[in-house]
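Quick one from the shared queue. A colleague (R.T.) flagged 6-pyruvoyl tetrahydrobiopterin synthase as missing a structural entry in our internal table.

Convert sequence to structure tokens.
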Amino acid sequence: MSPRSARLARLSRSVTFSACHRLHSKSLSDEENLKLFGKCNNPNGHGHNYKGGKLISILAHGIDPVSGMVMNLTDLKEYMQEAIMEPLDHKNLDKDVPYFSEVVSTTENVAVFIWDNLQKLLPQGILYKVQVQETEQNVVVYKGEETIVK
């Protein structure tokens, strides 16, 4: 490999945010929601520290030969502040975030929301995956896929 060839690297940064939500689908009856979501369907909601909700954004890109970086971490921190912390931290996802007024606020959908927000801010093609850890046991990884062919 010549000295001018770019090497691919993956850069990650994590943030922790706290939010509450209620798992409830408008497409289901109250009884069906309770059966499907159990205690997470509590009418008053429940909360998570998404580190025991950790969010990790991973970027994949060539290492810049001049700066030696995939991306300046200060810039990435600002993008994550705007895309994740401002809309989600210390919020009721279902009541404070318009996206979740029609979308069930599962961790899977939180990951999609974060992916979409980061995609708007980051250079095209650099976002590799978003990982959202809702609890110590539950983690969702989203890589921008839209459908699964069965």
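The chain has a mean pLDDT of 89.
The chain has four helices and five strands.
Added to the table.
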